[in-house]
Amino acid sequence: MSCKNMIEVRNLSKSFKGRKVIDDISLSVDEGDVYGFLGSNGSGKTTTIRMLLNLIYPNKGTIKLNEYDISRDFSKAIKRVGAIVEIPKFHSYLSGRKNLLLMANLIDDIEKHKVDEVLELVGLADRAEDKVKTYSLGMRQRLGIANALLCNPRLVILDEPTNGLDPQGMKEIRDLICRLSSENNITFFISTHLLHEVEQMCNKVAILNHGKIIAQGKVEDLVNIDYELVEIYTPLIDKAISEIENLDFVRNIKKSTKSIFVQIEKDHSIDLNRALINNNIDIKYLIPHNQSLEEYFIKLINGSEENDQTNNE
Ligand SMILES: Nc1ncnc2c1ncn2[C@@H]1O[C@H](COP(=O)(O)OP(=O)(O)OP(=O)(O)O)[C@@H](O)[C@H]1O
Ligand SMILES: [Mg+2]
What is the pLDDT of residues 290-303, one digit of tens each? Predict the structure, then answer.
């Protein structure tokens, strides 16, 4: 089955005043993807999204949305694309519904019931008549998503949709995105700096670091699920390391001031524990860390920074 390409970015670069902030990135988002665009502060997420929406122009490279080149066929390319870049602004003294009605007026041939439909979709129907100034941040964010849904989009682009929300608010947005993806067949491109968010809602990811994509692919392929990370607290750190470093299921050991981080092959924590006990090493705690993507991410970032340094030498 051939998959429709919703976003196709090729060799995109952008400089501000001679400083390169996006450096030759390429990525493609297929229909049905929930694509995570992961990067720390200042890595270039918003700049990329602004280019996708033709708000700023690249110095090099091409962008296709919906298989149309945005520099040539922007109105066709953007036709069924909804987006939020940074914090959505609304008239705070008007109701959520009234705000959306105003926005709907800007869209051609929109059906009258659409505003109520999108309010329902994001779970704001019962607060639709309340003024936006009485909304929580999470509700405003959901109103922003409702606004992005007005054009009946096949693709929705969101710049850090959970930024500033509390854990409950973040979960609501993630659940909403997952639901819109599976029930309404909407493709998403979502920037975030949170790894666990990518793990929880995205099927694909591109990891952006200093304007370069340092890894991309299916989340399940990138997350190395065949190992575990275990932290060991023991008064005998050095002895423990020498006893376990040559075990065949131990992949990597990192020493910190109070504990040891040991990367082991999956389902070997009992063997690890037994090896320590059999060698008379007292264990205070053995703590599992299920942060495989985070480990991977940090390793990648460190790796690419070391490469940068070697390249600069
Ligand atoms: N209009 C501009 N003029 C000059 N520099 C800019 C401009 N916009 C962005 N930058 C720079 O480009 C780099 C990438 O910024 P960008 O806002 O895209 O990062 P981000 O990944 O969205 O970060 P955050 O997580 O903080 O939102 C930063 O160094 C930023 O200072
Ligand atoms: Mg940003």
Answer: 655 666 666 666 65
